[in-house]
Structure formats: C-alpha cells, structure tokens
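Support reply, case 0932

Customer input (verbatim):
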Amino acid sequence: MKAFLDYILQFGNLNKHQTDFIMSKAKELELRKEEYFSEAGKIPRYVGFVLEGVVRFCYYNNKGEEITNYFVDENNFISDQQKFETQVAASDYIQAVTDCKLLVFSKKDWDEIGNTIVGWDNITGLILKNCLLKTIERRSPLVSEDATTRYLSFIEQFPTIINRVPLSYVASYLGITQQSLSRIRKNIR
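Our regenerated output:
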C-alpha cells in the first residue's frame, strides 16, 4: 500500500484524509500466472496497480499470432485506460506473466475518487502522461535497431523482468523468433 501512495504522491499533493479515502476504495486482487486482468472483447473492469509480479499487454494479429507489446512490473499502473474510461470492449489482453498481487479500483470507485478529490484529474493526467512517455521511450528504438541491439536495450530497460518472463514473450516483444533470440543470447554471453 505504501508503494502505491508513494507512487501517486510523486504527481501531486494529497492530505491524509484524501489518501485514506483513496485507499478505502482500493481492493486487493491476486492473479495467478496466465490469468487475465483484462480481455479483448470485454469491457475492462478495473484500473490496477502492480504490487507484486509482472503483467504483459498482448493481442492477436491478423494471422492469429500472439504479439506481446508491453510488460509492466511492480509499482506501476495497468489499465486499458481509454476503454476503461469509455466502458467499451477492449481490443488487447492484459495477462499475468507471474503470480501477481494488485490494488484495483472499479469504474464506480475510480469515478468517485475523481469526483471527490479536487486535483485528482491532474494527478491521473500526469500519471498517464508518464506511462505514455515510458512506453514511447521503450518502444521507439525497436523500429530502427537490429535484433541484438533491441535485446540489449530490453535488458537495460527491463532489468527486473528479463529472468521472470518466458523467452517466447520477450521474442514476441522484440519482433523476432524465439530461435533468433536464442542465437543472440548465445552470442553475447
């Protein structure tokens, strides 16, 4: 819980009464490895904050291949925010890669926090901006770098994740085959 409060307080000032109110709306959710936090075709139910574990964002391309497009670990928010806010069906999956513990907020509770705490929209806006910038910063190099450089960048950007997720997910994230990833890993040792 402290990690969650420390995280949101980076983006704005809240008093004890406000943080107590926010925490009163939070619920703990445990996801087992491979369970879904959010599924394509369904309306996202929660905004979550990862206390323990790793989740991935993925989708299926037009060939039916599963593509991992992002990883999120501890002390970060997870949400299909646009679909959550508008309450329309998601097009991506958010799946637990490891067993996870999350703090979650339902749409009703999230809206109640926003309607009660003055400045909450500013805080969440800054959090969203921060998440988006991180995503762009991590994804942009993948377009122009060769596979080895992409893998080395991945290790640098996700140092706590590399040994916690299946190599097939890493390969998919990097846009290469698992065999290519194995060769790259063998060559850089």
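We compared this against your earlier run and they match. Two observations from our side: Residues 120-139 form the longest helix (20 residues). The longest strand covers residues 46-52. Please reopen the case if you see a mismatch on your end.
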